[in-house]
Every structure is written in C-alpha cells, then in structure tokens.
Amino acid sequence: MRLLIVDDEAKIRQLIAKYAVFEGYEVAEAGDGLEAIELCRDQHFDLIILDIMMPQLDGFSTCRELRKFCATPVLMLSARGEEFDRIHGFELGVDDYVTKPFSPKELMMRVAAIIKRAAGAVPGMEDGKEIYTTTGLVVDFTARMVKVDGEVVDMSPKEYDLLFYMVRNRGIALTREKLITAVWGYDFYGDERTLDTHIKLLRKRLREHAGLITTLRGVGYRFEDQ
C-alpha cells in the first residue's frame, strides 16, 4: 500500500512517514499541492494525506484538481476545526478529516479504516479486468462495457464517462459543477441542462435500476452503492 503525504511542514511529513513506514506502508511526500498533483498524475497511491493550509495551492484546491482525474481516497489535515472546513472537504469527496494536533497512532487507524473501506468500494479484479458489480448491473472499466441484467447496453462516449465517474465515486454527493468538470472538462461552455439530459439518458439505459442514481435537490447527484 502506498501513501502520499502532502504538507508544507517537513516535520509533520516526517512524523507521519515514520509511523506509516512502521505500519508497513510505502510513503511518498510532497511539500505543496502542485507537487502532489504532478505525483498523482505519474504514480498510483492508495491514499493521500492532505493538509489544508499550504502556500500556492491549498488543500481544498488541490483536492478539487485531483478529483478531475483521480478517485484516490483523501484524508484531510487542518490546524482549524471549523465545521465549514469539514463540510467543504466532504463536498469535495474527502473521506475523513483530522484536526491538528493529532495522535499519529489514531491517524494510522483512520488511514487503515479508509483503505479497508475503499478496498470494498473500488471495482474488483476479475481475470485481470477492473469490474464493478451490483444487483443487475455490471460495469467493466477495462472493456468499457456495461451490462444490465446480463444484456450489453450501448452508450455514447459521454454516457460511459459519466457513469464510470459516478460509479468510482459512489456513495458521495457529487455537485453538478464537479460532474461537469470531471466529465466535460474545466473549459466546458455548455450549461447544467447538458448534465441533466445525460443523467436522464443514463437512467433510461439502467432501466429498472435507474434508482441507483439519486437526485440531490439543489446539489447534484449520487450513485447509490448497494
């Protein structure tokens, strides 16, 4: 298991790394958000420990950029304990939140819990393929194929992209802005009706399983993990 520790304070990174290595994790470090983003583009990590208060690019902005191409679990660190920070972090898809000063032992317990939870949530490997299955639905990421009740369903490229992103982030409230950015890109010039139309089409493709996509009024959508 590989961890990425992102904090502008070297002593904090070293403290976390010491305990992480003791627990058997491989560790990489980044001193700021920009470096973390570059590392995540080139390498795979099982979890990212991300500080909020950093120069150049803070933890929230870093997480927002990471979520455009990466679904790796994130545990956020902060010297502040405001409820707004926690809510904002969870809205961005953060998995857990720890306030400084923290107990390194407790931090490692939280890391283990997140990785264990993520292992049960990410698609499994079957014959070398990355696949997610639930009742009546099979999403084959490797083959870029979706089956509903055993029947292959044809979808447009954007429908595949949207469904794949939602499945990878299932159980998480996804704002319309986040979905549009992740699927259509940051420089998308359309409007939210494009997203709503694709959600409607996806529900039609899923047939009696359309309820897996839940509308969150005033927020966006969530893919329910059964």
Automatic annotation (TrEMBL):
One term under GO cellular component: cytosol
Cytoplasm among keywords: no
Keywords for this protein: DNA-binding, Phosphoprotein, Transcription, Transcription regulation, Two-component regulatory system
Purpose of the protein: May play the central regulatory role in sporulation. It may be an element of the effector pathway responsible for the activation of sporulation genes in response to nutritional stress. Spo0A may act in concert with spo0H (a sigma factor) to control the expression of some genes that are critical to the sporulation process.
Matches recorded under SMART domains: REC (SM00448), Trans_reg_C (SM00862)
Protein name: Stage 0 sporulation protein A homolog
One Pfam family from the record: Trans_reg_C
Biological processes, Gene Ontology terms: regulation of DNA-templated transcription
Domain of life: Bacteria
Residue(s) carrying 4-aspartylphosphate: D51
GO molecular function terms attached to this record: phosphorelay response regulator activity; transcription cis-regulatory region binding
